[in-house]
Structures are given as structure tokens and as C-alpha cells.
Amino acid sequence: MSEDHLLRLEPDTDGIAAAAAILASGGLVSFPTETVYGLGADARDDTAVAGIYAAKGRPSFNPLIVHLPSLEAAEKYCEFDPSALQLAGAFWPGALTLVLPLRADAGLSKLVTAGLDTVAVRVPDHPVARELLAAFGGPVAAPSANLSGRVSPTTVAHVIAGLDGKINAVVDGGACQVGVESTIVSCVGQPALLRAGGIPAEALEACLGQPLLLPTDPSTPTAPGQLVSHYAPQGKVRLNATKAGAGEVLLGFGPVDAALNLSPSGDLVEAAARLFACLHQLDAMNARAIAVSPIPDHGLGRAINDRLRRAAAPRT
Ligand code: TXA
Ligand code: MG
Fold this sequence. Notes:
By secondary structure, this protein is of the alpha/beta class. The protein has helices at 13-24, 46-56, 71-74, 82-91, 127-136, 156-163, 201-208, 268-284, 300-312, and strands at residues 7-9, 29-31, 38-42, 65-67, 96-101, 118-122, 140-141, 169-171, 183-186, 192-195, 236-238, 248-252, 260-261, 289-292.
């Protein structure tokens, strides 16, 4: 993101206001939660969210958790069934993430949900996270604030070691108390454990009065990480195409004559920001066969190519 050192902000009124202003202007701010430090961006801003992937060097687009100040705020973005309400009532604020059906009018970046029709939401319990969410007043997408493939950070020093020069700021909130990521439960249909984490599954089961489906259970719909393969456009996809063949719609990159273009100027951040919106648009256009321009395989191009390769893989 930036060549400069990141700003280290104090967790006081001024520091939180500065962090909220950076988020509002599309920047990247790391902030403490009770589990681990998150790397936050405005969840409605495609370019800011693309910046998260660029900073982390993630080679794929995993959907991100949206952080909100309250259950009421979360209800603007997704649908809560009775189980979800029960869990949120008992464990929020806290180390529980719920995967829920996305509302049609949610207005979140498609990059946050990786184009899925569900969204992961969490109300964190750390006072600094809560103050930042209140000051910003919008949804904050945040994966753990580490480089891809490294362990999650639980102190400011960890965040700086990994991301200095790549993000705008970090708010210092001391060491994270829980130290492992949130537990993820899907409440799309029967409640299912997608990731073990800060809140033990037993406590969730006691609250629900029923066992959770486990990731290994064949009826558990999706597991984090593999999810991304669940959204592919309807049309057949051909990669590294210099132009569209007969009956194909060209999804372009760079200065090519294309029906849709990820980034006419060849900017990988812009292309990432537009990727899922373009894939959805190809469906809306009823594109039966899609040709995609070559995308350079570095930086965000790696994640874009990973996604496109999955879309082009034979369907089962
Ligand atoms: O404790 C935490 O959860 C931390 C702090 C910062 O809140 N965040 C975190 O985010 O661990 P991350 O990006 O490292 O992990 C998010 C997980 C991924 O495994 C992703 O696949 C899953 O959440 N996820 C996100 N959206 C999903 C969805 N719609 N369906 C299923 N899984 C989803
Ligand atoms: Mg992580």
C-alpha cells in the first residue's frame, strides 16, 4: 500500500478518531480484537478490500469476516434465524463469527464475500475494536493482520514485523487476550461448526441445546478456505485468451476491446476490486462462454488467477 512506515496510534480518543478517518478514506488500519489483531478496511469499498489482499500477499480470495458494533448493526447485512439469534444473544460481543445469508440490499463489497450469497459477521469484545467500530460507523472487513501463511498477530510488534510499509496504521491495544481466532459457525440451515476457535464448541452446543454439525460431517455445506470454489459463473471459462472466439464474451484486462474489462489500465488492484462484480455481471448477461485476457501472475494477479483457474476448472 504505502512505502512509508505505518502510523502507530494510541488507543485514546484522538488515535481512534484518526483510525476511523483512515478507514473512511479507504485506507487500511490494523486494530486489536480480543482474539487477534485484525487488518481492517471499509467492507463496502472494493478498492480498500482489494488492498487487504495486496497487503497480506494472499494468493487466493478467501471471504473475510465483517466486524460490527452490535447485533442490530449486523441485521442490516444478513438474515438471523432463531439459532443465530440465540448464539448472538449469548456470545456477542465475543469470539464467535456467524456465517449467515447475505441480504440483497447489504451493499457490501463482493470481494468481502468472495461473491458468495452468505457473509461472516462478528461483534468483537475488545474495547478498542468497539470504539473504532462506533467511531467509523460502518462495517469493517478484517482478516487477521499477518502476511499470508504466517501466524496470526497478537501484539502490535507482530503486526509491525509483518505489515510495516504495507498498511496505513495500527492502533495499539496491548496483547490480545484470547490469542486464537474466533469460532466460526454457519447458521445457513442446520448450525455447523466451520472453524474451532476462541469459544469452545461445547458452549455453543449447550446454548443451542443440540450438537453442531462438524466440518467433517457430509451434510456440513462448506468449509472455510474451500468456499471460494463455490462461486463460479455459469458460462464456460477459457483463460489467457488474446481475443474472444465465436460465441465468447471477452473479460478483458488492459487495453483490449472487451465486453467487460477488469482494468482497462492494467491495474491489478482495480482488477481485484472488480473481479467478483464482473463474474456476476457475466451471469446477468447470460454469457455461455467466457474468454479471459491474460493476467500477470504477480501481486494481486496471483489471487485473481487462482480464482479464475477455479472458475475454468471442469465442473462436477
Ligand atoms: O478472530 C477472528 O476471527 C479474526 C479477527 C480479526 O476477527 N479474523 C480472522 O479472519 O480470523 P480470517 O480472514 O483470518 O478468517 C476468516 C475465516 C476464513 O476461514 C474464511 O474462509 C471464513 O472466515 N469465512 C468468511 N466468510 C465466510 C462465508 N461466507 N462462509 C464460510 N466461511 C467464511
Ligand atoms: Mg487468518
